[in-house]
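Review form for a predicted model. The reviewer records the input and the model, then writes brief findings.
Reviewer: anonymous (R2)
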Amino acid sequence: MELIIIIWFACAITAGVIASNRGGSGLFWFLEGAIFGPLGVLTAFTAGKKCPYCRSRISPKAIVCPKCGREIEKKKYDKWREVGKTIREKREKKAG
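Model under review:
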């Protein structure tokens, strides 16, 4: 009986670590691993988002996919930086 409890607890820890490394909530996946045991560990591999190009699982915070190396999305401030540059260029043309 103690062996089963130890294995279930190990599954809970493993599920939490796997999911947190993939960008998921470690506490949520720890609890799922504690409830479902080995099945919780297997489902922890589904944590995170998918790369739109190679479909591999990546961290939700990733900007570049570590597998295929393609850019996932530009940061919002980069877009506004480009908008500001365009506005400055238009003003300089009018003034110059």
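Findings: The two ends are 83 Å apart (CA to CA).
Further findings: The mean pLDDT is 80.
Recommendation: see findings above.
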